Amino acid sequence: MGDHSAGDGALKLHGASQRYLWILDRLGGATTRHCAPEHAIEWDASGHVVDLDKYVADPIYGLESREVSDFPAVFWNQDVVAGKRLGVPAQRSARLVLYNKAWARELGFEDAPVTDEGFREQACAAHTELQRDEDPANDGQGGWIVDTHSMTMLSWMVAFGGGVLDGSGYRFLSPKNLEAVAFLKQLYDDACAWLPQTSGDKAPAFAARGALFAAGGLEELSEFSRALAAAENPDEWTVLNFPGPDQPGLVAYGSSFVVFKGTPEQQLASWLFIRWMLSAENQKEWVEATGLFPLRASMWINWRRTPGAIAVGRRRPARAECPDPAPARLMADRARHAWGRLRCHVPIQHTLGRVAEILAIMDRTASDLVK
User: Fold this and answer.
1) Residue 59: what are its φ and ψ, rounded to 5°?
2) For the domain bounded by 2-89+258-310, which CATH number is listed?
C-alpha cells in the first residue's frame, strides 16, 4: 500500500486479504463460545481489544481536541461501551429510498411522498399504470421493488416509531414494528410492492420503470446510475428517507476500526494507520470515491455534491444505530424469512401472527447472542 508519514517517521503498509475465520483462529480462546465472536464487545470480553482512549488522548500521537470535535457525536460515540473506546468509526452508510421523479410527475404527483400513505398512493398508482399497458409481463410490477436487507427493514421500523434497540439490549417484537410490517404486507397484498428474483435485479428494474421506488445503500447509488445510463433512460430520480406516519426513517450504520492487543510497537503502528485513514485529506478522497457519509464534519461540504446528500437534506443524521454483527445477521436472515411469510396469500391477521412469532424468536436469540 506504500508509505505514509507518522509525524516523526514513516510506516510502510502492505495490503493483504485474509479470510475472516483466519482472524478468529488467531484470537484463540475467543472462539470457544457457543457462537463465534464477531464484534468488538465479545473480543474485548476475551481480552483481545485495546481501549483506544489512551491513543486518542496521547499528547504526541493522539488527536487534538478540535479534531475530536470534528467527528459528529452520532458517529464518534457509537464505539464507546461501558466507558471504553473499543473502536473508532471506519465508515458509515444508510439505506435510502430511490424515487423516479420523472415518472411520478407523469402519474400526476408533483411532490415526493413524506408519509407512508403518500408512499402507498404513489406506489399503487405506478402499479395501476403498468397494468394498463400492453405488456402483460410487467403487470405485477410498478410500485416498490422489495428489498430484504436488514437495514431496510430496520429503517421502515424506525419510520413507524419503532426500532430494535432497547436500552443495552434488543427488542424486535413491539407494536410499532408490527405496524411497519402490517404496512408492508398490505402493500404487497395490493400488488403495490413486488419481490425481485435476485437482489441484482433491483437496479435494472428501476431503470426500466419496473418500479417507481427501490431501496439501496449509499454505496449502491452509483450502481443505479449506471443501470439508468445502460438503459438510456434520462428520467430524473432522487433519494428519500423511508416515510412513516409521523417521521422519516434514516438509520446510519457501518464498520469501525479496532486494534487488537500486541506489542506496544504493533499497537502504536495500528493506531497511526487509523489516524492516517481518518485524516481530513484522506476523508476528502474517501467521500468522493465512495459516496458514504463523511466521518468529519469539515468534510460535509464535499459530501453535499453526492446523490446521498439529497436524502438527508445535506445534514448529518441525528440518529445512528450500529447493531452488533451477530444479531444484525440474525435480523437479515429473519427478515428474509419474514418476507417469505408476507408473500403468502393468506389473511393479514394470520400473517402478522406468524411474523410476531418470528420477531419473538429474534428477541430470544438476540438476547442469547449478546449475553
Assistant:
1) -65, -20
2) 3.40.190
Residue 232: per-residue pLDDT:
96
Cell, residue 46: 476475551
CA distance 97 to 152: 9
For 82-115, give the DSSP string: TTEE--EE---EEEEEEEEHHHHHHTT--S---S
Q: What is the C-alpha to C-alpha distance for residues 276 and 266, in angstroms, rounded to an integer?
A: 15
β-sheet bridge partners, residue 169? 166
Tally the residues of the chain. 371
Helix or strand holding residue 5 (H, E): strand 2-5
CA distance 114 to 249: 11
Would you kindly state where each structural domain of the chain is located, as residue ranges?
2-89+258-310, 93-252
What pLDDT digit, counting tens, does each position of 328-370 carry? 445 555 555 565 555 555 566 666 777 788 788 778 776 765 5
pLDDT at 227: 95
CA distance linking residue 320 with residue 292, whole number of Å: 14
Cβ proximity of 186 and 352 under 8 Å: no
| Amino acid identity, position 190 | D
Question: Coil, helix or strand for 239?
Answer: strand
Fold (CATH) for 93-252: D-Maltodextrin-Binding Protein; domain 2 (3.40.190)
pLDDT, position 130:
93
Which candidate, 41, 24, 22, places its Cα nearest to that of 324?
41
DSSP letters, 257-270, are E--B---HHHHHHH
Which cell numbers in the block locate residue 65? 481536541
C-alpha 361/C-alpha 364 separation (Å) is 5
Grid cell, residue 359, equals 420477531
Report the candidate in 276, 366, 267 with the shortest Cα–Cα distance to residue 326: 366
Instruction: Give the residues of the chain that fall short of pLDDT 50.
Output: 1-3, 7-8, 20-21, 28-38, 311, 314-315, 318, 323-326, 328-329
Question: Residues 246, 266: contact at Cβ < 8 Å?
Answer: no
pLDDT at position 269 = 94
